Amino acid sequence: MRVLVLGGDGYLGWPTAMHFSARGDEVAIVDNFAKRQWELEEGIEPLAAIPPLHRRVRRWKEISGNDIALMVGDLCNHRFVYKVIREFKPDAIVHYGEQPSAPYSMQDRTTAVYTQTNNIEGTMNVLFAMRAHCPDAHLVKLGTMGEYGTPNIDIEEGWLELEHNGRKDRVLFPKRPGSFYHLSKVHDSANIEFTCRIWDMRATDLNQGVVYGIETDQTVLHPDLETSFHYDDVFGTVLNRFLVQAAIGCPLTVYGKGGQTRGFLNIKDTIQCVALAVDNPADRGDFRVFNQFTEQFSVLQLAEMVVAAAKRNGQDTQIDHLENPRVELEDHYYNAKHSKLVDLGLRPNLLTEAVLDAMYQTVCRHVDFVDRNVMNPRIQWSSEKADR
Ligand code: NAD
Ligand code: USQ
Would you say 123 and 258 are in contact if contact means Cβ atoms under 8 Å apart? Predict the structure, then answer.
């Protein structure tokens, strides 16, 4: 297959590109290195230094013998997007190329508007270019479980069968997201569903939970192939942050009571799920939604699991309940369906003690490079900040 990975320099995009390349698919990557610019703006860096993408691609060729084509450019530049899609003619497009951080999007007006412009315009350009040059290709788009928010009813996989005043219909599940970032994904989903309906496009929206983990089968082959792992307050996701905090003996930063419950998955399962979606494409006209996570945990449960893992590895750590910088429910009902990927053959890598210990030990190898100044949250959801 010809697989185009948008956002292929990122935490998830780079391991995904190597995975498809390793199994013999023809792979091209698009990235404009925006993430590296945001890191500079925020004064943060990944746990291990990440070489330029050109070098990672050369190293991959040396190790695997396989080429990955590299196309540097901005998805918001429609001429660039049309050119990439016209020339590469993908069978599948895996779209990771967006601003992924809720705190970044809540920083001020500039980052909120940037997040929505970047994410929504980039996706619109991809949809229009697909319609023009590869209308039969399958769009596999990374959405997020946070699109649904935390409703007081079970969360279905994208669609809801509804009965109202005696009539029935199938509607997109009502969304109540918790940040301008999560909202950008809601708007993307609505735009993609619309193009499936009016242009007969084929798309799978992967509403992914919070990802954890640092290694995949390919990232471990050489230090140049590692993926960018963040633990800071802006781009670090919760379990990745807790592992680093424990490794340096810093109290774990649970926001508020810690009853916030989310779906989680190992980075290895992100890749497995995306491959399952690519290998089993949606039909023409079908806007398919899969909830992509393997287990539900509350933030406090995760913190307790990390404290126990650190203890097993000889480190004593405590839990701090910080005032919550976000506006979110800390105690709520949460039951999200997630069977469609399992039906396609997903075999989950669950968060066992052995997995936690292995991740903790990997993180410990990098402790000398950890910046202790980026543990406490700096971005508040409700405080008004001067615009830049
Ligand atoms: P990331 O920031 O590491 O990767 C995103 C990549 O996209 C970056 O390399 C960035 O430079 C690139 N990019 C952004 N805007 C672009 C543009 N306009 N043109 C070209 N390239 C652009 O993020 P990630 O954690 O790998 O997440 C990838 C995707 O998965 C995102 O869409 C994110 O919202 C989604 N997601 C991530 C998680 C998670 O826990 N990491 C969970 C659910 C969904
Ligand atoms: N949290 C803490 N302490 C921390 C960091 C986070 O208690 O130090 C809490 C947050 O308040 C929140 C939960 O942990 O309740 C998850 O926060 P997160 O930063 O790990 O995840 P989130 O902001 O939701 O975003 C991440 C990714 C995003 C993806 C999303 C999936 O950055 O790209 O879309 O997870 S989901 O949450 O399912 O929407």
Answer: no
Phi and psi at 113, nearest 5°, equal -65, -40
CATH 3.30.565.10 for the 2-374 domain, yes or no:
no
Q: State the pTM of this model.
A: 0.98
* Helix intervals (H) in 68-157: 78-88, 102-105, 109-133
**Closest listed residue to residue 202, CA positions, set 292, 81, 288, 120:** 288
CA distance 91 to 93: 7
Q: Which two tokens stand for residue 22?
A: 């390793």
Which of 11, 38, 113, 268 for mutating ligand 1's site (highest number of atoms within 8 Å of CB)? 11
Q: Please name the residue whose Cα sits nearest to atom 35 of ligand 2.
A: 210
164 Cα: distance to centroid of ligand 1 (angstroms): 38
Phi and psi at residue 285, to the nearest 5°: 85, -5
Query: Nearest ligand to the C-alpha of residue 234?
Result: 2
pLDDT tens-place string over residues 207-265: 999 999 999 999 999 999 999 999 999 999 999 999 999 999 999 999 999 999 999 99
Helix axes of 353-364 and 238-247: crossing angle, nearest 10 degrees: 60
